[in-house]
Amino acid sequence: MYGKELNAEELTANFKAALPNSPPYVGNVSFTISEDGELGSHYDTPEYYLAEVPVADLATFTLPAYDLERDPAATFVYNATNPPPVLYLTSLPSVGMLYDSQGAVIDTFPHQLANGTLRYRPVSNECRGTDTPYATFTYYAEDGSTGVKSPLNATVTLYVTAANDPPVASETEPFSAFTGVKTMVCVTGTDIDAGDSVLSAGQPFGDSLSELCIAYLYNGTGLAAAAAGAVVDTDFFTFKDP
Question: What superkingdom heads the lineage (predicted)?
Fold first, then answer.
């Protein structure tokens, strides 16, 4: 008991004298990530999916670490000006790639993190859902003042969920057509999503094609009968898979 109300400096001095600086602690945690790792979707620009998702577009997640001297939710937070805990990775995912908050690849361990924010890229077009872990890695924390290590390592479990990938139009073989005669042309495409198939095709900036096979009619100028079989012109059109 004191005969007066203690000020902040006196409370801090008493707190430090009575209690040692406790080590930080970490706990197991899990995160769910989209199949390609990106945040959001880009279906309005499907060509985006033709290349690897840029690192800057990968979703971020933050590893938790707790220090009772800094945690605002803890009681008796009097020396909260202490440096925050420092995080170290002690293992890496067996599949996929980890990146730090600046977008640099993390490919060795132990690895000190500038902060707890990470990005992760799964193997392209792979997923296992929320019932089966896709990858794991571990980390620990050190006290920012004393360097004391957290008593245990924590395991990070990553789940990768499916994303609907746009189909891809396939190149067609050149074909021959006769003037005034309809020639059937079949366009094709592929879809890597399990159970999906390409059901229709459309022009890039026009109406949808109702069938994957369409009739092409050349109405250009033909040659005289003596030159029958000669190539008189070339034509082309483009298509996409919606």
Answer: Eukaryota
